Structure formats: structure tokens, C-alpha cells
Amino acid sequence: MTDQSYVEHESELTTLLNDYHQRYPEAESPASYMMGFGPEQLCAILRNADGREIVFSYPGLEKGVLDGCAYRYKETMQEGTSGNPITLQELLYARGLPRQDKTVKLVRHRDASGELDLHDLYRNHRPAFLDYQRQQGNPVFDKCEFIVACLGEAGSRSRFVGVFQVLGIERRTEEHLYYNLVEVPGFDDLKERVIFDWGRAALSWHQWLRPEVGKTVLEIQPKPFSQPFTDYLDFTLSFAELAQLITSQSPRDEWYRMLSATAGVYLILDQSSGKQYIGSASGTEGIWGRWKDYVATRGHGGNAELVKLLAADAQHGRHFQFTILMTLPKTMTRPEVIKREYLFMKKLGSRAHGLNQKASHEQ
């Protein structure tokens, strides 16, 4: 795809995306999958949605394959129509969960006070989450053999995070019961990916998982990004990893929080040639916002030399590796940030021998 093609469809795409975001504010942005389709095809997908929500995925992303992006439209089931939506029970029973009634409890963790971020607790502080789950004020797990744990999201949306066997009560205090809960293997491929409808009783945080009352699966998302964030200067990301990171993180997650909290200077290494591109990020979403642009444009981010590489080979982004050279406060002005960017261009020679365009006096 050439720059001209991108510009031709940019206006229509912006309009279609704005309409889509207004209709589905909680849904993942189709712009995150620009690299899989390009603006022309993405416009067609949005036009043909006809008011339906779109579910995107990269079936081969875990193996670093960036082509083969897939999508489907969510069909809205109207009253009186027939259909056989996938249910949570189908997915769990197929992996060995017992089918007996009143054997398994469905548990929806959500902190109504807003003081505790359970998504962060689960993703980044797993032992603390498990302690939170096993500590109960009432004997809610006494009569069940298993619990199916999930995290509550907007409305009645619920994210599956695991199956646990109840092995009794380990200890009691005056205020709490501490259950012995052991995670059951065999459900890892579904954890954090399956979003289902809890049902009308969203205020009730636990209920029996009944075989005859199906919990409708709303979507099955791509596998979450698993590499933990440790430090700004501690990592490199391939383009495939960056794409997975951008499309799997929510504002609750640590990678998003940390990368959007800082401005900075970054480096893109083209591993096929050894050439480097130095860039800088500022603004509301900091480095996260700038790197999101690279994913949305299949790797070039609007940078002239990278655009040329992608025009010659639409999959050239697979050679790119991203890293941070320096973090800067988001309060720093854009000219001050660019001054640091130019300093690194000079230090690393990315204008003379890399992928940054030469200044006019260097031509």
C-alpha cells in the first residue's frame, strides 16, 4: 500500500471509526488492526458492518505471523429469532469441568467501591488476588466442589480467569473463612480471553453454574500479552510483540499505564539491515500513544523512510524492534523533547547512516 492510498481513505476511515466508537465505546478499536488489512479494506469492513460490532483477531500472532488477520461480525439476536450462540458451559465442559448441577459455582469478582483494581491485582499481583479470592466473610463455597472465577467488567460483561477446586476451609477467624482453593489445569487457553454475559443478576457476585442455563460467550479475544513490565530501559519488543501488546492492553494494565505516563526518545531497529530510526513521543498518551500509531499503520507511523520500506514490502514491519532510549516528563514542551531526539540522532548517526531523514544542509 502506498502513502497516496493511505491518504485517499484516511478521511472516510476517520468518519467510520468515529461512528463505530460512538456505537460501541467499550469495544476494541478497529484501528488497532490496520496493519492486518490496510485502510481501504478496513473501510469496507466498517461499511459492511451495518451497525454490528466487529471482532478482530490475528490467528497466527503468537508465532509472530502478522498476516492472516481475521474478523467477524457479531450478530444481534432479536427476540423470537433462533440461534445457537457459544456458551461458557460448552467451553468448560469440553475441557473436563463436571456437568452436575449444584457442583460448580460461578464467581464474579468486582470491587464496587472502586478502591481495589482487581484486574491489576490478577494480572500483576497474582498471589494477592488468590488470597483475596480465598478469604470470605460467609461460607459461600461450602457446598460446591469447584468455582469458576471471573472478573466483572462493564455492565454484565465478565472475563473468565480460571477454574479452582474447593478443598475445604484451611482456617477460620472471627471475621473470615480461608478456603483452600487449588487451580485446575487445562483451561489456560481460555483464561483472560473469554468474555461472557453474567446475566441479569449482575449485583449477585456468585451463582450456580447450571448446565441448562447457558452463559452466552460475547467474544473470545486474542491471547493477552504475557511479558511483565519491569523498567522502561529493560526491554525490547519485536513488532509482533508490540502489536499484541497494543491490542491486548486496557487502561487498567501496567504496560499501558507505564508507557502512557511518560514522554521519551525511542529507537526502532530494522533487524534486516541494522539501520536505526530515532523518534520521540509526547502528548497525552506519551510513548504508548506514539507506538500505537505504528501498529495502526503496519509499522511506519508516518515516518518517511519507514513508509518507503513498507511500500516495497507490506510485511517489512516484522523486522522492526522497538526500545526506549530515554524517558522524559510529559510536562516537557515539544521543542524540548525534539532537542533530545536530535541529540540521539547525532550520537547514533541515524541521519547519516540510518532511517532518519537527513537535514536539508546534509542532503
At CATH level 3, the topology of the largest domain is GIY-YIG endonuclease
- From the N-terminal CA to the C-terminal CA, the straight-line distance is 27 Å
Shape: globular
Cα Rg: 24 Å
Quaternary state reads single chain
Secondary-structure element string: HHEEHEHHEEEEEEEEHHEEHHEH
Q: Can you count the beta strands?
A: 14
How many H/I helical runs?
A: 10
Largest sheet: 8 strands, mixed
Question: CATH H-level name of the largest domain... which superfamily?
Answer: GIY-YIG endonuclease
Protein name: GIY-YIG nuclease family protein
Organism: Hymenobacter lutimineralis
InterPro entries: GIY-YIG_endonuc_sf (IPR035901)
Describe this structure in words.
InterPro entries: GIY-YIG_endonuc_sf. This is GIY-YIG nuclease family protein. With 363 residues, this protein is of the alpha+beta class. It folds into 3 domains: 1-80, no CATH class; 88-215, no CATH class; 224-363, GIY-YIG endonuclease (3-Layer(aba) Sandwich), CATH 3.40.1440.10. 30% of the residues lie in helices and 23% in strands. The protein has helices spanning 3-23, 34-48, 88-93, 118-124, 126-134, 239-248, 254-259, 286-296, 304-312, 334-348; strands at residues 54-57, 70-73, 104-109, 135-136, 146-152, 157-172, 177-183, 194-197, 206-208, 217-220, 237-238, 263-270, 276-281, 320-328. Strands 3, 4, 5, 6, 7, 8, 9 and 10 form an 8-stranded mixed sheet that branches. Strands 11-14-12-13 form a 4-stranded antiparallel sheet. Helix 1 (3-23) crosses helix 2 (34-48) and helix 4 crosses helix 5 (126-134). The protein is globular. It starts with a helix and ends in a 15-residue tail after the last helix.
